[in-house]
Structures are given as structure tokens and as C-alpha cells.
Amino acid sequence: MNISRNEQRALHVLALGGCILHERDNGPKITSVTCITREGMILADFDLSVFTRLRRKRLIASRWGCPYRISKRGLASVRAQLDNQGSVTC
């Protein structure tokens, strides 16, 4: 699967325990997203287009209204790094 550099960065952050906070308008459409690391810092290169690509590829998921986190498919497709030992929890 082809994953861009910005998508790969976001997946690394999520694999290490980060999350994606999303905001909606009055309807079901998501209007803004913010990728936050486990230390509380914000990923600068993350925007709505990267979010929709990750969600379309099913690399991230939200369960029971929680913030978006990396899915098992996302953990399998993220490139191997020594510090990518995250878990999928909500």
C-alpha cells in the first residue's frame, strides 16, 4: 500500500500513543482535525486531507465516540521503527 510521507508521520505518532481529535459542525461532516502526540504536542503537517486519506484506507478508526486512533491494519502497514510499539486502545 502506498502511504505518503505525511500519512506515515501521522501513523508513527498514532502508533506511539497519539490520537486525532475531530470537530463537527451541526451535521455529521467533520470540519477540523488535530493530531496530538502522547506528550501533548500538535503535529503540524496534519490536515483534513491527510485525515480523509487515512480513514479511507482504514488505517485509523474511532470507536464509541472516542478520538481517532490507529487501527490494527494501520499498525501492520506502518514502516518498522524501533520506537513504534504502541497498542490499540480507546
TrEMBL record:
InterPro entries: YjhX_toxin (IPR018654). Belongs to the UPF0386 family. This is UPF0386 protein PYV00_04855. It comes from Novosphingobium album (ex Liu et al. 2023).
